[in-house]
Amino acid sequence: MKILITGGTGFVGSRLARELLARGTLDGRRIEQLVLADQYPAPEAAADVARDPRVQVRVGKLLEQCQAFVADRFDGVFHLASAVSGECEADFELGLRSNLDSTRALLDALRAAGNVPRLVFSSSVAVFGPDAGNPMPPLVRDDTLPTPQTSYGTHKLVCEHLVADYTRKGFIDGRSARLMTVTVRPGRPNGAASSFFSGIIREPLAGQEAILPVEPSVSHPVSSPARTVQGLIAVFEATQQQMGGRSGLNLPALNVKVSEMLDALEAVAGKTTRALVKQQPDPTIERIVAGWSKGATAARAERLGLKPEAQFADIILQYIADHPGAVTESARAAAAAYQRAHSR
Amino acid sequence: MKILITGGTGFVGSRLARELLARGTLDGRRIEQLVLADQYPAPEAAADVARDPRVQVRVGKLLEQCQAFVADRFDGVFHLASAVSGECEADFELGLRSNLDSTRALLDALRAAGNVPRLVFSSSVAVFGPDAGNPMPPLVRDDTLPTPQTSYGTHKLVCEHLVADYTRKGFIDGRSARLMTVTVRPGRPNGAASSFFSGIIREPLAGQEAILPVEPSVSHPVSSPARTVQGLIAVFEATQQQMGGRSGLNLPALNVKVSEMLDALEAVAGKTTRALVKQQPDPTIERIVAGWSKGATAARAERLGLKPEAQFADIILQYIADHPGAVTESARAAAAAYQRAHSR
After folding, report:
1. Of A5, B71, B255, B282, which is least surrounded by CB within 10 A?
2. Do the bridges between strand A219-223 and strand A254-257 make them parallel or antiparallel, or are there none, so unpaired?
């Protein structure tokens, strides 16, 4: 089968690609071709993926690539490409173009292809927000009323509904999965207002200072990269009946306070590592984060057999195992000791 | 002030225009100019409106008219133009163009104008529908989770969220009001699957047979044209605080069974009039109607002082008073007798 991943050279995209290549099959069919469409070429960290003979990387804006997808007639699509929340707040038109127009163009291309491809759309927990008439519950559920308070969340929600309608009409077999905040992301901070949720772990592990722009009492639904990729694949492989409706479903979340994240960092990597995190409130980020969910439940995803990580320490250990070169020797040693003490 | 009504020569649009012209003011300011943008010229029934010196009718597709609105710098906009539900199901691209692309073009033009105009978007109770994971409650509320089951409802919901986001960003001062099924509409049946809700009253009153394509036990939230126009104006004149949130609000509904509509028809216009309604099930319409709300509540609209009609007979009397030429003499006489008996 022929698979397309938009945003395919990005962090989640290339990790998903690596997992699909390792499995070799998807939904019981052999993967013959995997196209990674992205505005950027594959970074060094994804060189192994790009080198696989089944992989074709196509570099260019998604909006300009969609027309070609008609002839590709992909069997399956993971639509991950997206401008992130901070970018969309800073540049309204960029957000509309990257997140709304591009998705519309993709859906129209898949419709024109005529082979009813399966599509997983990566929506986001950012569809939820506090509206005056509709305060958010402490934990957002699959069926909590989404009233997004960012352009990013608005476009994600709008695209969920377009995916549902193209599916209802039989043009695609689409499903939307709301990603939780994926952490720990490797590399540099990105434009997402949620970037610090990775930064406060990644930078100290590398021996660098990190700024915590919010109160440690802030709670947030997060997911590891591995569980997120697992969730995307499970949603692809589910039948529409198993999906339990065409509306977007929440992927599993570990609902965690920043203070608990930092406690886990200290437990895994030591006091001196944690001490590299400096609290320095940023009113802009605090305002954005105040509009975010404090946590999420994921009943429909659980029925697909999906679970969040049990504890945040596991997410830190996953990062260290995946990116040993980005972690100081002392932090690696502390983590190894932590693992010996906690596995028997 | 300068007002734009899209769909301005249509039934609700021209009725809204007539009401605004009669009031002379909106939100405390004098109406100097009223532009009616519509793909059709004003029909004979709206000749009085089109003749008013304050009125300018602009005929053409909305998508092609939007660019000119930038220079107009309207103070207020009622965005009513829309392809109806049946049309959107029959022609997917027409629906996307008329209901999604046109609204986007309108919002972008109003944003480009730069004067933060106030906008009322006419959404619809069709945003609600039964999704496998989210069955509809017996009465849909302002905060019921919308999972639309038609392209029409999808586009209305998508546009609600775009209006909310353009408003949040300060580009417009927008608000979305979900119209209930407006009945009794004059004239000919239109492409809406809900068209029969008017037909089963209008045709018998004109001495003609009407087809009832669903069971008489079907219940539905309806509103008279007068209350609908009143609702649109109240929503325009409300402050954002009074609106109680940026998400769409339900306009008041009279929740009525088809059998109750027919009983009211008999009470007002006599047995022979009611006898002109022939039940003839239409599976396509039955399927669509099965996905619609059985009724609605409108808590936020009530806080704006809005109320539905008290009973369906009042809606029939309103139609007869507004369109005496479209009603047989015997039905008019029966209605006059009914009114004498019921007013004291």
Report:
1. B71
2. antiparallel
Asked if residue B20 and residue B120 are part of one domain, the reply reads: yes
In this prediction, residue B191 has a pLDDT band, given cuts at 50, 70 and 90, of confident
What pTM does this model have? 0.96
Residues 157-186 of B with CB under 8 A from A: 157-158, 161-162, 164-165, 168-169, 171
pLDDT by residue (tens digit) across B5-17?
999 999 999 999 9
How far apart CA A223 and CA A221 sit, in angstroms, is 7
| Number of independent structural domains in chain B | 2
Of residues A133, A157, A245, nearest to B134 (C-beta):
A245
Question: Is B208 domain-assigned?
Answer: yes
CB pairs under 8 A between A and B: 84
Cβ of B147 under 8 Å from any chain A Cβ? yes
| Helical (H) or strand (E) element with A261 | helix A258-269
What are the structure tokens assigned to B267, written together? Answer: 């009470």
User: Beta-strand (E) ranges in chain A?
Assistant: 2-6, 25-26, 29-30, 33-38, 55-59, 76-79, 118-124, 173-179, 181-182, 210-212, 219-223, 249-250, 254-257, 277-279
Residue B247: other Cβ atoms inside 10 A: 26
Q: Burial level of B243, CB count in 10 A (0-12/13-18/19+)?
A: buried
Are B83 and B94 within 8 A, CB to CB?
yes
- Quick one: average pLDDT of A233-255? 96
Cβ–Cβ under 8 Å, residues A178 and A124: yes
Strands (E) in B151-201, as ranges, are 173-179, 181-182
- What integer pLDDT is reported at residue A290 of this predicted model? 86
Active site residues of A: 152
Range of the domain at B215: 193-221+255-294+311-342
Is the confidence at residue B18, as pLDDT, over 90?
yes
In a domain, A332, yes or no: yes
Cβ pair B111, B168 in contact under 8 A: no
B301 falls within a domain: no
Are residues B123 and B169 part of one domain?
A: yes
